[in-house]
Design brief:
Layout: H1 2-15, E1 19-26, E2 28-29, E3 33-36, E4 39-41, H2 43-52, E5 58-65, H3 67-76, E6 81-83, E7 95-98, E8 103-112, E9 132-136, H4 144-151, E10 156-160, H5 163-171, E11 177-181, H6 182-194, E12 206-217, E13 220-222, H7 230-246, H8 249-258
Parallel strand pairs: 1-5, 1-6, 9-10, 9-11
Antiparallel strand pairs: 2-3, 3-4, 6-13, 7-13, 8-11, 8-12
Helix pairs in contact: 2-7
Length: 263
């Protein structure tokens, strides 16, 4: 009798065992995703936690990772998924498929106030010839014409670790401009002011230029690797994300960080 009870208990435990799923997260992209100790914080992290909380078959673990290293792990098939890549199937063929869009992001040019060409009506990248841009390592933002101008040495690019480094370099005159999400740049600027790394008056040294595009962030899956749960996870994640959006849960999460939706 005792043997049968042990067998039954073992079967019950197996039936309720959760599949561990590790998802990589950008460690330096506040307010959307950043590392705090060993934890992942940010808007995307909270959305993904909310979505996967309803996926009872999985134990989802978010792991912070420098963006370039995370992409490399996904490319090799050593990591299951990463967030939040933009939809770039040609530039990153190793990411496939993508989830449903998680959040919209508005891509803008931010420059030092002395860059006279940087106005909301500026022609990008034509009006920025001869300038030096700071671009987050691993990011391919700016569009084909921008990177063609870089290739032809009409525009110079310096890779940096984060938006914070970009903004500090612009204020200190070490680079001219950057291209990134508007809310992310403003959030980082305000955090630096709160932390006394910048003064309020330093805001006058920065100027937003044209809106280049509205990108969307996704959960991107590795094309390689052996993940037997992959298809089932993808389908359930998209379903739960749809339901979260339908009840306005994504907007509520954004408002906790900014008080309003970035849309």
């Amino acid at each position: 009798m005792r043997v049968w009870c042990c067998l039954l208990l073992g079967l019950c435990m197996m039936a309720h065992a959760k599949t561990r799923v590790e998802i990589l997260a950008d460690a330096a992209y506040p307010p959307y995703s950043w590392q705090e100790g060993e934890e992942v914080r940010g808007i995307y992290a909270d959305i993904i936690r909310e979505v996967t909380a309803s996926m009872s078959d999985y134990e989802v673990v978010l792991k912070p990772m420098p963006w370039r290293r995370g992409l490399s792990l996904v490319e090799r098939g050593s990591a299951f998924a990463i967030f939040p890549p933009y939809y770039l199937p040609d530039a990153r063929p190793y990411i496939w498929p993508y989830s449903q869009p998680i959040l919209d992001e508005e891509l803008v040019v931010m420059c030092g106030a002395s860059v006279a060409a940087n106005t909301p009506q500026a022609r990008f990248p034509d009006d920025y010839s001869g300038l030096r841009f700071g671009i987050n390592a691993g990011f391919t933002v700016g569009g084909d014409l921008f990177w063609q101008a870089v290739k032809e040495k009409q525009i110079d690019v310096e890779e940096v670790k984060s938006n914070r480094e970009n903004l500090l370099k612009i204020v200190r005159g070490r680079i001219d401009c950057t291209v990134n999400d508007r809310i992310s740049l403003l959030y980082e600027l305000f955090k630096m002011i709160q932390g006394s790394q910048l003064a309020v008056t330093d805001m006058s040294l920065l100027k937003q230029g044209p809106v280049l595009s509205k990108e969307q962030g996704f959960l991107g899956y590795s094309r390689k690797g052996e993940f037997p749960y992959k298809q089932a996870f993808i389908e359930q994640f998209d379903k739960e994300l749809y339901l979260l959006k339908k009840r306005d849960g994504v907007r509520s999460i954004v408002e906790r960080y900014l008080g309003k939706s970035p849309r």
